[in-house]
Task: inverse folding
């Protein structure tokens, strides 16, 4: 299944790196911990980082930081969300061919604010277990008051594209004979061993689902 | 030195995490490898990832991917740039208090396209040595034709804010007695050992400035 290509979602530059396949797009969205939400207020663009969770063809956005966004949403204005996973720094012989290896997604849609407490509760469950699988059942769950203080947006994805680069540098033919080093410096988001809160009650072991955290 | 606070750059949510100090803002911009550029075309927001380099109070954006942005710029429209460094996943006793440790910047300005070959050449020098200090002098430098094929934007930063969170979870007083684990999973962008291009000429050692790459 692919997203229909819209003028706004068509990758024009280096289209051979693009994909509109939902599976490809969703894998990137699901691996990324944060996304970058773009919206417009009176012709002024704003971009804010926030956490997200995908649920089928929608994106749940946790709205603690999105007060500017809320009014905007209620007016039915379009939103753009982008996320990028950096995989490597590509060092080419020629400066012009330096690049990065990455997997990115840009998607477009319109959002709505969740208003019913049960909807918010369920969305928080999805958001929590996406970051820490298993954590919901091992936490103090949200109170009615906390639910009131939480804003969650559901974005219906109308169109989306992925763009990716992998592999080594692509240099001009003549430059391969030169004495310049070329290659890739791989990079990854590394998660270190959990550090317990200094106020942690004695005798509580680190839960299995948080040890060796990875994505 | 701080940026003047404008309505668009004022951090409204959790203002105690905000800073308008140039040194703080620039340190984050300089550490981040990529940024997220937001712009508007006919009320449609776009967000694209790209590499950047700061030069004094301006941001150089490498425009290989920004063709949509170019026309837009020439019309003098405002741009928003955001970048976020993720430092940790904060695991609280209460779901509502889960958080992330991060350092982010949001900045606003207007851009212009560099048109003169010498300006572009110098900007590429800055962009290259920012990612790989020392690489410019050890590369095949750009040709006149390559310079023509490169788009570089200079963004004059008009206002900017940083927002940061660090430290452990902040739970409700009553929850500290509970049996839930709490703490932080630190995270960092990790750079691995350089992998040489499979077409690398024999006898070329990995340059010192690329070994143990870090930011």
Result:
């Amino acid at each position: 299944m692919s997203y229909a290509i819209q003028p706004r979602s068509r990758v024009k530059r280096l289209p051979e790196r693009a994909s509109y396949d939902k599976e490809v797009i969703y894998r990137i969205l699901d691996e990324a911990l944060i996304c970058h939400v773009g919206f417009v207020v009176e012709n002024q663009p704003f971009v804010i980082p926030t956490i997200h969770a995908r649920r089928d063809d929608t994106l749940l956005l946790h709205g603690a930081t999105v007060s500017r966004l809320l009014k905007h949403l209620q007016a039915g204005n379009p939103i753009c969300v982008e996320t990028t996973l950096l995989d490597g720094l590509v060092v080419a012989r020629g400066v012009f061919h330096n690049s990065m290896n990455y997997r990115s997604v840009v998607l477009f849609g319109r959002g709505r604010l969740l208003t019913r407490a049960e909807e918010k509760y369920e969305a928080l469950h999805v958001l929590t277990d996406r970051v820490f699988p298993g954590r919901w059942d091992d936490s103090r769950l949200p109170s009615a008051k906390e639910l009131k203080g939480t804003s969650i947006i559901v974005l219906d994805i109308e169109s989306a594209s992925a763009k990716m680069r992998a592999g080594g540098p692509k240099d001009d033919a003549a430059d391969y004979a030169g004495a310049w080093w070329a290659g890739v410096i791989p990079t990854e988001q590394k998660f270190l061993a959990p550090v317990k809160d200094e106020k942690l009650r004695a005798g509580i072991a680190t839960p299995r689902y948080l040890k060796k955290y990875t994505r």
Observations:
- The two ends of chain B are 24 Å apart (CA to CA).
- The first strand of chain B starts at residue 18 and ends at 19.
